[in-house]
């Protein structure tokens, strides 16, 4: 069942409902807050809407890189597995 979670960034509180585990919520909110703070200068000159877009683009870029890295890793593991199977078959 969804529960209310309050998230604060730049002195503003944002309520949201989620049914995600508490540990996941904490990690997600910390990540979002970190990215928002990284994309906004200390003076907070960038409007918050623009900050959110920049943070979202930053997170999307990291996601795409991780996705590519994971695919490369999975391909490498698959290839190694096939090589092991081939060597075992050759040994028999």
Shape field: elongated
Number of helices: 2
| Number of separate strands | 2
Report, as a whole number of angstroms, the end-to-end distance.
55 Å
Question: What structural class results from the helix and strand content?
Answer: alpha+beta
CA gyration radius, whole angstroms? 21 Å
The succession of helices and strands, N to C, reads EEHH
Can you walk through the features of this model?
- This protein has two helices and two strands, in the order ββαα.
- The chain has helices at residues 22-39, 48-91; strands spanning 3-9, 12-18.
- The mean pLDDT is 85.
- Helix 1 crosses helix 2.
- The chain has one domain.
- It has 92 residues and is of the alpha+beta class.
- 67% of the residues lie in helices and 15% in strands.
- It is elongated.
- It has a two-stranded antiparallel ribbon.
Salient structural properties:
single chain, 92 residues, alpha+beta, two-stranded antiparallel ribbon, 2 helices, elongated
Short description:
Strand 1 and strand 2 form a beta hairpin.
Write the layout of secondary structure elements.
Elements: E1 3-9, E2 12-18, H1 22-39, H2 48-91
Antiparallel strand pairs: 1-2
